[in-house]
Amino acid sequence: MKRWNLLPEPSSRPERHNAQVVVFGSINADTSVFVNRLPGPGQTVHATRLHRDIGGKGANQACAASFAGADTVMVGNVGNDNDATRARNALWNAGVDETSVRNVDAPTGTAFITVDFEGENTIVVAAGANALMTAERAQDVRGAGAVVLQLEIPIDAVLAAARASTGITILNAAPAVELSAALLDAIDVLVVNETELDVVSRPFVSGGSTVHKARSVIGPSIVVVTLGAEGALFVQGDSHTAVPAPSVAPVDTTGAGDCFVGTLAAHLVAGHPIEDSVGHAVAAASETTLFEGARGYLSQRVVD
Question: Domain for residue 49, yes or no?
Answer without folding.
Answer: no
